[in-house]
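Memo to structure team: turn this sequence into structure tokens by end of day. - J.P.
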Amino acid sequence: MWLAVICGSHPDHEEVIPMKLRNLALAVAFVSAASLAHAWSECGHHIITLLAYDRLEQHEQSRLFEILEQHPRYAEDFEPSPKIKDVKRWRIGRIGYWPDIARSQPKYNRPTWHYQLGANLVIGDKSKVTVPQSPFQVPEDATLETQELYIAQAFTLCLGVASDNTKPAADRALALCWLAHLAGDAHQPCHAGSLYAETVFPDGDRGANRIKVKQGRNLHALWDGLLGGRFDEGDVKRRLAAINADEEMPARARRYDALDTAIRSEWLAESERYAVFCVYTKEVLQPVKAVQRGLTEEVPAIDLSDKYLETAGRVAKMRAFQAGFRLAKFWKFALNDGVGADQ
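Reply from structure team:
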């Protein structure tokens, strides 16, 4: 039975998002204080990437492996632990997680590619905050080595490289990894922008990284870990089964899977709405507004309610399915050398 999950009417907006999300059987996973606030966790990126892989045709799956084996870090970064039972599926999941591994590799690290500039929400006097423009246009001279790009730009760039059979296989492998990772990041609400509040966060809360919570290090890290933490083969398998058991999820994922405009607007705009109604709820904003009004000196670590955590867990599962479902279409396009694949 479906539940009508409303993240809450927002005090600064009249818009309401209808969200009918299934109450899946798996419990919400909480982020530990030691988890990294990079994007969806390792477990999360594995889940999203496997969801996409399972929607590919057999020849597309084979082609994906052919290109992946040409990855410049294949020998170093795609060799599993002896404990891994299904090496093939581990390597597939690793595709989506690899850009986080590359953070420790100066040659391949692209720090700004993981998020989008702009505001999810502004409270207070907008003239007293500095909100950067959200960039979508890819610079004409951009390459896989270009540092200062953001999610939408990087995805468009990588789609062009991955779908071009005249490009070196190593570049296509890198681009396929980034497509998987960026599709996941674009569906994480905290990566679509930041909260801006005069006197409190005049230059933004860094995608909720500056908001401490008692259930983890910060609000961003908590959302990153809602699909699990560090990779666990059994956990990934169980979560995938639970997500796939919901037969009505595909209908919500098909809404924004168009090859031409999806990453430029819809996915990130969708994440912005989830941020407004599900990340920055009343219980999160009240302490921020107390500081803004001079009632307290700083925002304390917020003790999130069970309702908040349960809703966030359901939203995370939905966003994971949407990301995987939509990524599959872009992978198909790339693996068929730029030929559209409607499904």
